[in-house]
Amino acid sequence: DAAATAAPLVTRHSIAEARRRTTRLLLAEDNRTNQMVALAMLRKLGYADVDLAENGEQAVAKVAAQPYDLILMDCLMPLMDGYEATRELRRRGVETPIIAVTANAMAGDEERSLASGMNAHLPKPLIMQTLAAALEKWLPGGGEELPLDGP
After folding, report:
1. What is the pLDDT of residue 143?
2. I want to staple 100 with a disulfide (CB 3.0 to 4.6 A). Which of 39, 47, 121, 141 is the partner?
């Protein structure tokens, strides 16, 4: 029976879900509570492969050791802050999208993030819909229209 052996139905939803399962994220955040909140949000959004860096030095070392699809970077961390870590990654030729995640919501903070080489700026506390939209926009393959009629 051909129907019984047919490939599973491929939909925009199933493709997006598969992409989330295979996406590698790095969360650079020094505050334990903020780590737990961000990790819970990412998991709820379907992102299970998330590594943690507790400061900018760890973030730079982790990116040097393996590739990531996207980096969520706290701006204010000990040893090396997110701005300095981003500048160092960009100096090394890393083109991975980096999203600032910061409590700094004053005028000029977003410009400072972008000037350091970050791609976007999310204020804390994180809001699930805002985080989801930023990930969709900046992850490779995100936001592109999928053909409805197949090949």
Report:
1. 52
2. 121
69 by DSSP, 3-state: which? coil
Residue identified by tokens 């590594």 is: 51
Q: Is the peptide bond before 140 cis (omega within 30 degrees of 0)?
A: no
Nearest 5°: the CA angle 81, 72, 80 is 15
Are the C-beta atoms of residues 100 and 82 closer than 8 Å to each other?
Answer: yes
**Tens-place pLDDT, residues 100-112:** 998 866 778 889 9
**pTM value surpassing 0.85:** no
Instruction: Write out the two tokens for 40.
Output: 């819970």
Task: From 24, 29, 101, select the one nearest 66 (Cα to Cα).
Answer: 24
Partners of residue 51 on adjacent β-strands: 26
C-alpha triplet 43, 18, 120: angle, nearest 5°:
60
Alpha-carbon distance of 71 to 88, in angstroms, equals: 14
